Amino acid sequence: QVQLVESGGGLVQPGGSLRLSCVASGTFFTLNAMGWYRQALGKKRELVARITTEGEFYLTDSVKGRFTVSTDNAKNTGYLLMNALKYADTAVYYCRAEVQVTELRADNYWGQGTQVTVSS
Q: Can you say whether the dihedral through the CA atoms of 100, 39, 72, 60 is positive or negative?
């Protein structure tokens, strides 16, 4: 089966940067896409970014120009580079891997979440 290990969160000042990583391991054919979600305290979980391993990507409007989503396909790893961080970016960030588990079946798996806190 598939395991996801997420890392890179922490405490950062406004304007700072963090890079989140999400590594998929286990038994599967390919990583098809990596999505990134965040959930701030008292708010619903929202989609922040998503990228397919073919290079198609999406960024929500509030992070365009600041965040970059990417994958290292050889390492089955997704990245979310967050620049120019703002107070409003404070949240728990979750990755979601879309993996080709077998030739005919794709499944989604969630990372455990990592806290990003932007504070002065």
A: positive
Residue 59: name the closest of 41, 83, 76 by CA. 83
- Give residue 98's identity as a one-letter amino acid code: E
d(CA 6, CA 68): 17
Nearest alpha-carbon partner for 32 in 49, 48, 55: 55
- For each of the chain's 120 residues, which pLDDT tens digit applies? 899 999 999 999 999 999 999 999 999 999 999 999 999 999 999 999 999 989 999 999 999 999 999 999 899 999 999 999 999 999 999 999 999 999 999 999 999 999 999 999
DSSP state of 104: S
CA dist., res. 36 & res. 8, Å (int): 13
